[in-house]
Amino acid sequence: MAIDGNKIIHAVMEGSKIRESKGIIPLFGVYLSLFSVDYYNRLNFEFENEMGEARDLEAKSLLIRAAQECGYATFQGIRNSWEWDQIVAPMIETKEDQILGFTAVAVAFGWGDLEVKDLIPGKKLVIRAGDSYEATGYMTRYGAAKSGKCYMLRGVTGAFMDLIYGGDYPDGLYAFSAEEPRCRAKGDPHCEFIASKSSRSTIS
Ligand SMILES: [Zn+2]
């Protein structure tokens, strides 16, 4: 059975009606909350600006690694949840379907209109986004970028591969790393994230 993204979106919309007293949404085995993308974008991009040109690569690496670690831990919780067992697991037939399931959940969470364009088991994952909030946020605030700006989705693409092909949790983190060769923020028609095996433990 193919992964039915609409079914997952519907389940997340229904489930997210339940809030704890502090606004936390307990869903898919993890704690979620509604978060302003403007705030997130400003925090990230101002951090990058404050680090300055000399430390630009370090700033980017920190932001991407934070997203990858977050994605790795969050989706580990998600794939071990009751909701995953009930809603997503019945649609999964192959190991690779898990990546499609992760992507559908990320879409349902509002992380972007993500689409898996290519997946070579154990080697490569290509995810495309036509409307990344990071690219939109960057362009709105700063204009055209010189390099890809979607650090969250770049880290998350690596995390998806880490979870499926990186070995036992938690040792698989950073087994893969992703690049963003195309980004709307620098004038491309869409953002594209390509994860492949890491040759080293840092992302540049
Ligand atoms: Zn982008």
Features:
204 residues, alpha+beta, Muramoyl-pentapeptide Carboxypeptidase, domain 2, four-stranded antiparallel beta sheet, 7 helices, 6 strands, binds zinc ion
Explain this structure.
This protein has 204 residues and is an alpha+beta fold. The protein has a single domain (5-197), classed as Trafficking protein particle complex subunit 3 (Muramoyl-pentapeptide Carboxypeptidase, domain 2), CATH 3.30.1380.20. It contains 7 helices and 6 strands, in the order αββααααββααββ. It has helices at 5-15, 37-51, 56-79, 82-88, 95-108, 133-142, 151-165; strands spanning 25-27, 30-32, 114-120, 124-129, 176-182, 191-197. Strand 3 (114-120) and strand 4 (124-129) form a beta hairpin. It is globular. The structure holds zinc ion (ZN).
Poorly predicted runs? none
Structural class: alpha+beta
Strand portion: 15-25%
CATH architecture: 2-Layer Sandwich
Number of helices: 7
H/E order of the elements? HEEHHHHEEHHEE
Major beta sheet summary? 4 strands, antiparallel
Kindly report the average pLDDT value: 93
Q: Quick one: how many beta strands? A: 6
Topology of this structure?
Layout: H1 5-15, E1 25-27, E2 30-32, H2 37-51, H3 56-79, H4 82-88, H5 95-108, E3 114-120, E4 124-129, H6 133-142, H7 151-165, E5 176-182, E6 191-197
Helix pairs in contact: 1-5, 2-3, 2-6, 3-7
This protein binds zinc ion (ZN).
What's a concise summary of this model?
With 204 residues, the chain is an alpha+beta fold. It has helices spanning 5-15, 37-51, 56-79, 82-88, 95-108, 133-142, 151-165, and strands spanning 25-27, 30-32, 114-120, 124-129, 176-182, 191-197.
